[in-house]
Amino acid sequence: MHSSHQHAGPTGSVIGAKGWPADPGASRATVLDRWLLAPVQRALEAASVRLALWDGTSLYRSLAPPVATVEIRDRGMLFGLLRNRELMVGEGYSTGRLKVEGDLVALLEAIYRTFPPRAAGWLSRLSTWRRNTLDRSRHDIHHHYDLGNDFYRLWLDGEMQYTCAYFSDPDMTLEEAQIAKMRHVCRKLSLRPGERVVEAGCGWGSFALYMARHYGVSVTAYNLSREQIGYARQRARAAGLSDRVTFVEDDYRTINDRFDVFVSVGMLEHVGLAQFPVMGEVIDRALDPQRGRGLLHFIGRDFVYPLNPWIRKRIFPGGYPPTLTQVTSRVLEPYGLSVLDVENLRPHYARTLQHWRSRFEAGLDRVHSAFDEPFVRTWRLYLAGSQAAFTTGWMQLFQVVFARSQSSAIPWIRRT
Amino acid sequence: MHSSHQHAGPTGSVIGAKGWPADPGASRATVLDRWLLAPVQRALEAASVRLALWDGTSLYRSLAPPVATVEIRDRGMLFGLLRNRELMVGEGYSTGRLKVEGDLVALLEAIYRTFPPRAAGWLSRLSTWRRNTLDRSRHDIHHHYDLGNDFYRLWLDGEMQYTCAYFSDPDMTLEEAQIAKMRHVCRKLSLRPGERVVEAGCGWGSFALYMARHYGVSVTAYNLSREQIGYARQRARAAGLSDRVTFVEDDYRTINDRFDVFVSVGMLEHVGLAQFPVMGEVIDRALDPQRGRGLLHFIGRDFVYPLNPWIRKRIFPGGYPPTLTQVTSRVLEPYGLSVLDVENLRPHYARTLQHWRSRFEAGLDRVHSAFDEPFVRTWRLYLAGSQAAFTTGWMQLFQVVFARSQSSAIPWIRRT
Question: Which of residues 291-310 of B touch A (CB under 8 A)?
């Protein structure tokens, strides 16, 4: 990683995590500490997770060998976990105040399996209603996607695709699976030469360039990330595709032209529930009344549940993975759009994350040269937790193909 | 049709349609008649539909040649149309008080295209809430499906499948497409030999027998229609499959065993919105907690809209084609079921109906030997109207594959 790409990134803020102060010279665990630990250990025993306090104290009684041991390194951390578990697990892990002995993914999968998905209560649903204004979205996207292209290059595929790949053969490489994903989406859209495509949220531009190159369409692609758009424009010039692919550094809400096809891969989870009707309006406005069709590819859920608060704070501010119902009822149906095809690619995202994680760990030295240890641990937990969520059904990956209700552009049978 | 299969059927009730009395000796159209006709003709002129009164009066002014002419044969019918259009079009057509000159499907398609789908107002939504009790459902199913097997044999395929076929090649025969449909559903369900399948709403039993014969599963199949169940049992005996296929003459709500797979082809549109949570409960109760998965195949819509009141009255009492949102939000998501795959087969149902219609018309002499003219006209309009609704996007046909959120039985990629 070049020094010119050093970023404050989330580094500073992780260190400055709010919570109880670390207490490295903690004395032996007291009766109170053990009393506080007991109910947490009891709950986690069903998942075969062993807890230990800073002095080695453990109340794990199960006969099953533990999947992993989580060491709570100081009293402040114990109190923090009791007060706000969902946030403090991440804060503790990233600052080293929670230490995991054993396999991190296996640990998280065991917990997710033991506490299966169910809809959140009304109080925590409130957080799903954050309103992502234009300014907020710009800030959110900058927070995550402008960490430096070199950082992402370390562990993404050569095409720099930061979305779920498609492993038509489970043993294919990540590179092959990312190309298979682009082909999969193009076939679902039945792209025809000369058609006009708009892409909302184009990442580093690989899919826009792929569509133009292999399907002869012209593409207008939107993205708020300056680093990504700069990179994408360079690639378009290098590939001689600048005349057919236009990269626009702006919000999807500013799309104001007509297109045959609307496509969005991995952006809807940043849009936020409160903006779904706006998303529907944008699609409706952008799509040709006769031939208009599109595809939304997004992380979703089977039940209404906010994104984990630590992930919202450290990784994806403003993020929300919607249910299929929320997408059909708020984005598509109000605008006379008909669902033609839905595919759930959940296992493919688990596999994609497995690839990303092993590349991330293999490139660790280079990450360390630009980022500090809390940053590395934050990303390690985020990638491992995401993999576990897809393995266990806590998260889904939906691809939804839609068209005008009266469209004549519906393919007779699907070919994927 | 054998005389032993004579039915009162809907025959009597069509004749006794409420409305204004026919007025065969109507005098010439008056100024009032023309004044009442004018706004209706104006609206229909956009669809190039020409109206004419009993004395030949027409106010059609368009330069475009009409798609068809609809003759209103008496003054009572004109008043009836103004008062309750949605009901009286069907009542008028079936009793011959509305006469169509021209192609019936083309006429209906022109109207559907000119008045594109939009959600119904709250008042007409109320009718979507009819509560289908066990008794009501039994009556509803008897009304439609116990018209006599000989009647349906005249125009269905040899396997007696009264649901949307799958034309993997658009030019295949109806027989081939119905077999392709069964294979399509089985592949989506990844059936494995020895698995236990429950089928809710099994028609004349062809699909249950197909699954047992070709996929080595055991099937328990439910249906309320006595005629259909009797026929299905005969076929099971003849095929030597009685040990692996059990036909139960009862409501889907009485399913009380555990199965690996839940499948329902063409029943959900009879269930009614008010019973959707019950449907979800039944599926949840019936499905194996680990490997459980299923498929719902149903007529649906892109927008909330009640079934046409004439169709509800004469063809499908208690029927309601739901939106995808209503199915995901009321049947699947509350019970921890994950949507794996959705396919919209709308054009396939239009093609299926085209086949049914031409067979129906070809077998007309035999229909007439058991049923009267209003019955024939009722069915002609129902089949033509359904075809037009699928062609124009007023109705959709969804196949939804689902599984437990944590299921390990999810196929890696779809093979259909």
Answer: 302-303
